[in-house]
Specification:
Strand content: 35-45%
Oligomer: single chain
Strand order of the largest sheet: 3-4-5-6
Radius of gyration: 27 Å
Low-confidence stretches: 10-16, 86-93, 146-152, 231-243
Number of helices: 2
Distance between the termini: 69 Å
Number of domains: 2
Length: about 280
């Protein structure tokens, strides 16, 4: 009996000071608890903001998933904090032209003959400078007409998003592509800015950054792309040329309308991303 009691005491002390491993028999020496899995994740308590606020005397470091904010949050001893933010109200710390960063380990060099296409892999964004003509992204023209000098008409890269397809829609001529692939953290957009409703509307909670614009009708007086930022009533014109060369990106806040002038005959397209 005495030996059994000694065993229980020794086992209890060892248990109190032991590390715990779930999915591993060798938890890291610096951790009290290590969870290891390649097929499942850690699921923290999920609750609404009201339920979170009802927690009595939360401990510093207490963590939850807020189902209203769709975000992991932690208590810093004074207030609930998170690393999530609204794109429409937050500062943008990234590069405006390359919001996903620059990945030189995934440099992209390719050419497309007439009718050939390339589809961007899932989870990636493709940043491109293009030499050639008659290029479309998901069926929307971004370049056409006479051959372009490499980089001369593009001050900014084109961005082709995850799962989107770039096509050489011409009958003759080769499109030459150079750029790089990056893990996608923004949503690439290629769309038509029409002269009549429905205009393109920037989604709630998002900011649209326009990198490139293209007008198919050459030399149209006052032809260009416009942003109507509600409730502001001022229209902002990007330019009046066949290929509207943006010296800097255009930025449209959530809820604003993007459209083309009447003189442009509704043939203005734009390429950029939502952040």
């Amino acid at each position: 009996m005495k030996r059994f009691l000694i065993f229980l005491i020794f086992y209890g002390i060892n248990f109190l000071y032991a590390q715990i491993g779930i999915g591993t028999t060798t938890p890291h020496i610096s951790s009290k608890l290590e969870i290891s899995s390649t097929s499942q994740g850690f699921l923290p308590p999920r609750m609404t903001t009201a339920q979170r606020n009802a927690i009595i005397s939360p401990a510093e470091g207490l963590s939850i998933y807020n189902t209203d904010a769709k975000c992991l949050e932690f208590y810093d001893g004074t207030a609930w904090k998170s690393n999530c933010s609204s794109a429409s109200t937050s500062k943008f710390a990234g590069n405006l032209l390359y919001p996903d960063g620059v990945d030189f380990s995934n440099v992209f060099v390719k050419h497309l003959l007439p009718s050939q296409s390339y589809t961007v892999p899932a989870g990636k964004n493709l940043y491109l400078f293009i030499y050639g003509n008659n290029a479309t992204i998901n069926g929307v023209s971004i370049l056409s007409g006479s051959s372009l000098n490499y980089g001369s008409v593009q001050n900014q890269p084109f961005i082709v998003g995850s799962g989107q397809t770039l096509v050489n829609s011409g009958v003759t001529g080769t499109i030459y592509l150079n750029g790089f692939l990056c893990d996608a953290t923004v949503t690439a957009v290629t769309a038509v800015a029409t002269t009549t409703n429905p205009y393109y509307t920037v989604p709630t909670g998002k900011t649209l950054v326009i990198l490139n614009t293209y007008i198919a009708t050459p030399n149209v007086a006052n032809g260009g792309i416009y942003i109507l930022a509600s409730p502001n009533v001022n229209n902002i014109s990007a330019g009046i040329f066949q290929n509207i060369i943006l010296g800097l990106p255009m930025i449209a806040p959530e809820g604003s309308l993007v459209f083309s002038s009447t003189a442009a005959n509704g043939l203005v397209t734009f390429n950029g991303y939502l952040k």
